[in-house]
Amino acid sequence: MSPMDAAPRPAPPRINPLQRIWLRELGMERLWLRTPPAVPVAKAGSVASGATPGQTPAAASPGGPSTAPHSPIVAPTPVEARLDAPTAAPVADAAPVAAPAVARTAPAEPASGRASAIPASILNRTGPPPRPAPKVEVQEEAPPPIPVAEAVKDANLEQLAAQVVACAACGLCKGRRHAVVGQGAQPTRWLVVGEAPGEQEDRQGQPFVGRSGQLLDAMLAAVGMSRERDVFITNVIKCRPPGNRNPKPEEIAACSPYLMRQIALLKPERILVLGRFAAQTLLGTDATIGNLRGRVHHLKTDEGVQIPVIVSYHPAYLLRSPSEKARAWQDLKLAAREL
């Protein structure tokens, strides 16, 4: 063994379970309980502090007690004695020498300075440790959506159609199959405006394709009009309401800018409005369809142009009430006379 060996390490300071919990919460449990480094201590038989290198200690000289100055001899520990036993030289006729005890006192505080890092108020606190405050992730606020009227003000017909397909301005977008933009002649003589797509329109993505569409085509043909040549057909609401219910005011408000932009781009000579909700939306009134039909209204565009507006019954209503077809025919003739 080497002439110098480490003294036994002092046991770490005892802490109670509550202090251990505090240390763990602070992340200092391992640091506090780490054993301080051992202090080197001279072994028995090693060179004394006053001896010169190569000098034999008095206890190891064969001639008996040495006359050299007394030097402190450290008594070997049991482990060191066992390790040194095979190689230690026997001492003959040597008077027993009492080895002075080496004072091994624990330092006032650990060498690593852990005691100064933990306040006594924390170590002496009673009760469970406080839970750490949850981390609150700061999320960047999404920019507010651009209003529909602002988004479509400079769009052409193709861009407008793409915006309608991607629209999520109201809850109707969640249940639709297809958004129904509109279909017909461009440029157009008549703009026919319905209320909202039905089941068949939602399936096919085209306006007025069910039984209502067949009746509308027959009505237009009676006054010499065709959707392929003269008429563009659209709706105030571009997505089907669930169960074909009436559109809600917020849905009409969210979707009507698309219709107003279509009117500005198509510049129709006449507008034939079919149904109460479409008439009230376009004319900005709460009047019933019975009070609105039978006369010519006018819609003023942003360019200052006055477009004649004729109000009539929706074809779906005429299918349920065939007796009203005569009044609808009068409305069509009124629209045709205004050309």
- CATH H level, superfamily name of the domain at 148-336: Uracil-DNA glycosylase-like domain
Approximately what portion of the residues adopt beta-strand conformation? 5-15%
Mean model confidence by pLDDT: 76
Shape: rod-shaped
Numbering strands along the chain, what is their spatial order in the largest sheet? 3-5-4-6-8-7
Question: What is the CA–CA distance across the termini?
Answer: 120 Å
CATH T-level fold name of the domain at 148-336: Uracil-DNA Glycosylase, subunit E
Please estimate the helix content.
25-40%
- Just name the CATH architecture of the domain at 148-336: 3-Layer(aba) Sandwich
User: Largest sheet at a glance?
Assistant: 6 strands, mixed
List the secondary-structure elements in sequence, H or E. EHHEHHHHHEEHHEHEHHEEHH
Number of strands: 8
Please tell me how large the radius of gyration is.
Answer: 50 Å
Number of helices: 14
Textual characterization of the structure:
- This protein has helices spanning 17-25, 29-33, 78-84, 114-117, 120-123, 148-151, 157-165, 199-204, 211-222, 249-266, 276-283, 289-292, 315-320, 325-337; strands at residues 4-6, 40-42, 183-184, 190-194, 231-235, 270-274, 296-300, 306-312.
- A hairpin with a 5-residue loop joins strand 7 (296-300) and strand 8 (306-312).
- The longest helix is centred in the C-terminal third of the chain and has 18 residues, at 249-266.
- It is built from 14 helices and eight strands.
- By secondary structure, the protein is of the alpha/beta class.
- The protein has a domain at 148-336: Uracil-DNA glycosylase-like domain (Uracil-DNA Glycosylase, subunit E).
- The strands form two sheets. A six-stranded mixed sheet has the order 3-5-4-6-8-7, sandwiched between helices. Strands 1-2 form a two-stranded antiparallel ribbon.
